[in-house]
Amino acid sequence: MSFQSYSGPASSFPPKSSWKDFSTLFEINKPTMLKTGDTGEDVGRIYNAINDAAKLGVEERVILCIIMQESRGNVGVGTPNDQDGHPTGGLMQAEESPAFPGQHGLSQQQISSMVQAGTKHFKGNLQQLDNADTASTIYRALRLYNSGSINESNLSDGKGATPSYVSDIANRLQGRTNG
Model-level pTM greater than 0.90? Predict the structure, then answer.
C-alpha cells in the first residue's frame, strides 16, 4: 500500500480510528527491520523496548512508527546531525540518544536505551502541547519532534526539516510501508 499525502492542520490528518493496532503494525514492519541487518533477536528486543518505553505515556504504535520513519528499525543506524548541528542517534534519531553505528546483535539494554531516549524526547514534545493522547496532539508533537517548531495551519511545513514527516508517520500508523 503506497503512501498518501496529507497536509494542513492536524484536523486534516487521519483519525486514530484508522490507525492499526501495535501488534499488526509490528508484524507489517518486521521484514523491513530484518532487511537492515538486524538479527531476529534485535527485532524481538525492539518489541520489548517499545513496550517498556510506552510506560512513559507514549503509545507503542507511535513509538514504532517513529522508529520506522527515522531508522527503518536498524539498530546499527548511523548518527547524523540535526539542522542545529547536534548529533541525533539511535533507532529514533534523537539528541542525546546512545547509538551503535554499524552494529547488530545488540543487548536488550543497548536497544532499550535508544528507544527510551527517543521516547523521552517525544514525550517532551507532547508535554509542550497539551499532553493529550489524541491524534491532533500526536501529529503536532511529531512536527515538533522532527523540526522543533510547528506551523499549526500546515504540519507539512518542515521549516528546514522533512516536510512529509507527519504525513509519512500518519501513513505508517495506518499500516502503510514504503518498502
Answer: yes
Q: CA of 12: how far to CAs of 76, 146, 166, 173, in Å?
A: 35, 19, 11, 15
The neighbour count for residue 34, using CB atoms within 10 Å, is 14
Query: What 3 state SS string does 75-108 have?
Result: CCCCCCECCCCCEEECCCCEECCCCCCCCCCCCH
- pLDDT tens per residue, range 60-108: 999 999 999 999 999 999 998 887 888 889 999 999 899 999 999 999 9
Sort 2 into a burial class: Cβ within 10 Å, 0-12 / 13-18 / 19+: exposed
Number of helices and strands in the chain (H, E): 6, 2
Over the stretch 96-140, which tens digit does the pLDDT of each residue have?
A: 899 999 999 999 999 999 999 999 999 999 999 999 999 999 999
